[in-house]
Amino acid sequence: MRSCSIPCRSREQIASVSETSRTSNLVSLRRTNLAFGMDPSAIDAKGGFSFDLCRRNAMLMEKGVQPPSFRKTGTTIVGLIFKDGVILGADTRATEGPIVCDKNCEKIHYMAPNIYCCGAGTAADTEAVTEMVSSQLQLHRYATGRESLVVTALTMLKSHLFSYQGHVSAALVLGGVDVTGPHLHTIYPHGSTDTLPFATMGSGSLAAMAVFEAKYREGLTREEGINLVTEAVCSGIFNDLGSGSNVDVCVITKGHKEYLRNHRMPNPRTYVSSKGFSFAKGQTEILSSKVTLLKERVVAIEGDEMEE
């Protein structure tokens, strides 16, 4: 009898916490609805899925409250397994809404000497997540004295992203070679993962996947793999406005990696004015001026002064 009372009390405590949380949410909803003049009877507590927030959001839009806006991100990241390892590829365009804010950014991030990760989504999120997991892998290598496993990085990344339920905008293509062989995984922002022989992510992923599905085969050589990855990224660049600039490629094999920065530049700047920009004098208004005289004597901050 004594052993049965403990789990019963635990269930009662859990039910009490859940009921308290639900009551708090209902009170918050009632306050919002009363403030905007909505009928309080519309939020009666019922079983099943609650549409309270859906009705609340629709009512707020009718009152003129604008929903939060978002900006579309654009990227093409790809990866494939060839006979000796893994090849990753990415474009180099970073956008801020309709503005290209960086034409040559790095989207292939270091995770471990034998593991790299391509990131699509919000640049700050991909940088922070990959850097955080990379530091954890480094500490793990210090503690164990062994090479990092790709599945270890995969578990750390998807566990972190799953805990935020997709609010961390980081879509990743993880690739590497460890003692168990080459591995390639995709990780979605909400934490789900896929293990594939070739993968694409980002807004240009459909165009890149079309190239992979048409031309990928098992047993590709290094040069064939690099050319296929480059062609897939270029397909995303030419068919997606959010992708552009250059193609970065990272080749990972057993005990070696090669990062080919700007491996291909499909959109080079073909014309540059030899004269540059010239502005006639007097077109720029001078608001203020200050003249500072330079001292010829050098004052020694540390050590002894030299004789003149």
Automatic annotation (TrEMBL):
- Fetch the InterPro entries from UniProt: Ntn_hydrolases_N, Pept_T1A_subB, Proteasome_bsu_CS, Proteasome_sua/b, Proteasome_suB-type
Q: What's a single GO CC term here?
A: proteasome core complex
Keywords of this entry: Cytoplasm, Hydrolase, Nucleus, Protease, Proteasome, Threonine protease
- In the record, what terms sit under GO molecular function? threonine-type endopeptidase activity
Localization in the cell: Cytoplasm; Nucleus
Domain of life according to the entry: Eukaryota
What is annotated as the active site? 75
Q: Which GO terms describe its biological process?
A: proteolysis involved in protein catabolic process
> Would the keyword Translocase turn up in this protein's UniProt record?
no
Instruction: Describe the reaction catalysed, as an equation.
Output: Cleavage of peptide bonds with very broad specificity
**Partners and quaternary state?**
Component of the 20S core complex of the 26S proteasome. The 26S proteasome is composed of a core protease (CP), known as the 20S proteasome, capped at one or both ends by the 19S regulatory particle (RP/PA700). The 20S proteasome core is composed of 28 subunits that are arranged in four stacked rings, resulting in a barrel-shaped structure. The two end rings are each formed by seven alpha subunits, and the two central rings are each formed by seven beta subunits. The catalytic chamber with the active sites is on the inside of the barrel. Component of the proteasome complex.
| Known role | Component of the proteasome, a multicatalytic proteinase complex which is characterized by its ability to cleave peptides with Arg, Phe, Tyr, Leu, and Glu adjacent to the leaving group at neutral or slightly basic pH. The proteasome has an ATP-dependent proteolytic activity.
Among PANTHER family, the record links this protein to:
METALLOPROTEASE TLDD, PROTEASOME SUBUNIT BETA TYPE-7
Q: Which family does it belong to?
A: Belongs to the peptidase T1B family.
Name this protein carries in UniProt = Proteasome subunit beta
